[in-house]
């Protein structure tokens, strides 16, 4: 609906106009300019007015998109703090060696990527020479999230610096001999160099945001002053397609993380083609980041473009730059000048007149090579603006040419991501372009040589002096000399050891109660980091709100609605809980930052992340691998676990497979405890293994249940079995000496079905069953695999599960609230006849009893399955199975 003059309704129509006549005069002036000088002039004046208003402090909405030009004009660039000629030589050596390393590796078919670093070399070199703080200075240094495909360039710089040998370069992607280099940033594979694994695209930017946020968390909680640490994330414009890349932009702006800078290499190409073929990714990203509240610095054009902009007195050049799509700009970098004159400058008369003033050499320089990301002074200006900006994170959009300096066969080609080598002639052309003193004789064996100016050369001395001034080598991962965390007092665990008596308690609540007590420990209590994506009250964590507080950098600026209640919603600047809202990905990024703080900051933290079981390994499994690769430690807790304990939620929440997925991760120690005391023993052992004198680079995954049950006291002598994964919980009492017998193995909440089945088997069928608690199918399998490996070395080692069940009479029936494949992991090491029950298939909404009957795992179903196994052995009549099904209504 419109008003009489055809204008759409606006929010301004709801505001009183104190002087309509003045308003009309402003509108008339704008109309006059539009009529006299054209719409472009009118738009220019409006934007100038907005810019002036912003500078004057007027509260106006910002433009989401600016012209396709540099944010910092050449005249406003700060003085360059360094020797540009020397840095150019260093960059040339690094370009050469990065390309040589990948090309030499191609002999063995190991691949590698050349074009990414070639386009981003100055983005890294400028940072290393001027901005990135090392770990040997004050504080923790900066945290660098290196773009995965640029790793050859980082190795090349470490080679120039003397940290990597030529032999190591020649074993890029060939690690089995012990001297090789991993393909991408892998802390577990090269832990002295790489701090963050980043090649799983999207996880780097997400983690960088939460790392910057966690840095502030440490400072606000007075654990460590991280105010001198800056987080730098190097990303590709194609990588920004990943939803994780932009998932937390609002968080970074909301919490004013000015300790964070994204550097997005806008070479306009994905892995196999243009990022935004028919559009402009730089403008899109600018609008996205500005809209989220970030400071945006565009570094698009090199100095060669200055002459063009000065000649553009009509604005025609700016208009043309705004309308040309990215794929066309990619084409300009590969076509001759005549094509550019015709296609770009021929678009309107004003541009054609401008082109007459330009030589072919000038046009070639502008369209082939002159990009802001290729000029150290412009990158330096952008970085300086980023670190000096306060109150918001900064994103730098740096335009480059993918494959820059690698020759016409590489530059801007769609296939350059898959191109793994240069020819000798191409290397010789690159040598001339870079001005490197490498003689033709160095190529005589048919291999491209590595280049190094000498350990005492001016280039190496300069590089090392710059790094020394910035706090030492980078990137680097350092393990700080820190004492093991003292183990909590035994009495902290005894409350769960003694059971709950007649009171019912779910294992989820048992875990939360235990952690709440551990957080009171004088020595280590402050190091616990409780993390929850949302619904903390679902997991019984509301009791932590008033005592530990929910972290917020602003504290609590409002009166909480439940302030008069005992467990009110308390936010605090020094709050301990990270309550992330509905973002499991954000919560996992929190967890990773906390779980690796022992290395990043030399401060050991104990994170525990509790979540709806279904939304852990299934939703954020990639981050679980990132955690493992980054050598993180802590407790991941899948609450409301299993496929039948969360009733009514149906398919979406019915988790019967997380333990199967978790079993694939070598760093994850996976437990499915049945009782509160098992939870206590496992957590106690986890604190020892992860934070004790012989700390291991592992993390714990526990599944806990929301099903309240009376919790028994811990039997004597079961601690070892709990930790190793299996112990006999309740031995059956034979009604007569020759009674049929079997072994029931159960994990998690299934122990209760097995115990009921034990009673039914004895009362209704005269069958004796021993019930075992299988706390960890995964640890039983891990131990058995180690025994198999020992056998291949000629050593005899009996798996623990084989030992534990040795001599146990009858067949073995395993049951859990998980798919049958979960317990079946250990079947080959069980000497007895093996069978299993599980919750295979899709979930459904119903009561627990109905769901268990549906999946065939309830007590009565266990009885029938037990009788079936005994029928096979001839120990009960064949009719028993049918009779039991009829008796129990199956």
From TrEMBL:
Its cofactor is thiamine diphosphate; Mg(2+). Residues 486-708 form the Pyruvate dehydrogenase E1 component middle domain. It comes from the Bacteria. GO terms for molecular function: magnesium ion binding; pyruvate dehydrogenase (acetyl-transferring) activity. Residues 725-858 form the Transketolase-like C-terminal domain. InterPro entries: PDC_E1_N, PDH/Transketolase, PDH_E1, PDH_E1_M, THDP-binding, Transketo_C/PFOR_II, Transketolase-like_C_2, Transketolase_N. Residues 147-300 form the Transketolase N-terminal domain. Component of the pyruvate dehydrogenase (PDH) complex, that catalyzes the overall conversion of pyruvate to acetyl-CoA and CO(2). This is Pyruvate dehydrogenase E1 component. It comes from Streptomyces arboris.
